[in-house]
């Protein structure tokens, strides 16, 4: 349980976050550009750190701890493969997103295409990303927070009346835990909603800067303590070999292998390369860096700042913050061996971790850290949680204003736009809590998002590359891909990795067929897009439109950056454990 000193540290942090939000208050007359893009005035290091803070959610260290316990380091390619898209954002998309001048990636479709099919596509994309994708992510982040606070809170002692009242409307046990955990998560969501509705994106980014620093400090502190208790580099390796005998090498295997269903396990070089580095990459992250990445890039003060922000994010994501989480995950395998968790953690905590290895992360916090320091580590996880939630609230509300409200009523005043944004943000907070009650495991939600992304990935990339892609073709690819995804999720056909490949292939085939038999694009619209964005790939020579950048030099830069990131990961694993 928490000490008084821990409570003081946590309370001080929560007041700080609230104060930053109110200090960044958006006035109603400033409108959506201020509320959602901070007046397009963010310096690169603000925007880049904010992206990193958003992806640094409280669920991530827990999920990594569970993945390492079940599949070793190589299991993390389920999310490390995102580096493919993130590298493409740096090399290809960051500057071009800034040039579009849009508020949301759905609004971009009205620049790229024209006509009724473009409006249908814009509506579908806004619904899928603004509602479905966004709320699933929020749901799993809330689910993770429920796990973290489970061994820490005791509202039954602190405020029994509140537990009694909550028990009348909350289930006794759910994905968020019991009423104690659910109360804590709901109160945190309410706090984030409050400062997010007041401060808009500028308030979100300012709190992100503080929250990222605290989150990184906390994760490093726990990593150093856990690693030391496990005996350092040599002690961890010896402990793994002693506890797991011939299975020990599984924990530090670098490249993934998957069960193909067509002849056993296939290594990274064949099926794994496509499934993990390519398909898996754009399946989990919008293939062109859309979503909240686009929002931050569009809020930068120049296209140079947008590109620098994307590069800073990639460095922080794959070169800095990953290693403390992996150190804790590996140390947990030594300090609380799978199947024998109670020896170090005690019977109560050991039973909790044995039932769910993701709980090893908060369990080590409680076991290894003294009062005060424990409060600081909890603050770091709260910071990670809040920096993700505030972004997704603001980002989701941007679709409601830009892609729904203003299309229905273009005459809305700036004050009305901000008012709608605040109502939408509060609505997202309620929806996120409801979805969180349905998520049993964090990795399960990751896979839901991946299946959705696989259906949209190829059309998303193709519209930047080739002028012949139309709104109708992109719509056809998305609909067929989503239909195949739904069928596979219902039937359970094929493995997870195979599903992603098949869904992606079906989407690409439907899009290609629609291009072949459908109408050709309006050249005036193509020229307008080329003037605004200066795209790369295969585009016609049109009067008044700039020449498109060749795709092969851009692809070469992407390959070099991906290779560099993978090399950093490989060297890091070797330094950590050999």
Description:
This protein is mainly alpha-helical. The chain has a single domain (4-577), classed as Sodium/glucose cotransporter (Up-down Bundle). The chain has helices at 4-23, 31-37, 44-55, 59-71, 77-80, 83-100, 108-112, 116-149, 155-158, 160-167, 179-229, 232-244, 268-284, 292-298, 303-319, 322-335, 342-355, 360-368, 373-408, 414-436, 442-465, 471-491, 496-517, 523-533, 551-577; strands at residues 258-259, 265-266. It has a two-stranded antiparallel ribbon. The two termini are 37 Å apart. 54% of the residues are buried. Residues 259-271 have low confidence and may be disordered.
Main features:
578 residues; mainly alpha; Sodium/glucose cotransporter; two-stranded antiparallel sheet; 75% helix; globular
In percent terms, what proportion of residues is strand? under 5%
CATH architecture title: Up-down Bundle
Radius of gyration: 24 Å
Strand neighbour order, sheet with most strands: 1-2
The CATH homologous superfamily corresponds to: Sodium/glucose cotransporter
Which stretches are low in confidence, meaning pLDDT under 50 for 5 or more residues running? Answer: 259-271
In summary, what is this structure?
The protein is an all-alpha fold and 578 residues long.
What's the arrangement of secondary structure elements?
Layout: H1 4-23, H2 31-37, H3 44-55, H4 59-71, H5 77-80, H6 83-100, H7 108-112, H8 116-149, H9 155-158, H10 160-167, H11 179-229, H12 232-244, E1 258-259, E2 265-266, H13 268-284, H14 292-298, H15 303-319, H16 322-335, H17 342-355, H18 360-368, H19 373-408, H20 414-436, H21 442-465, H22 471-491, H23 496-517, H24 523-533, H25 551-577
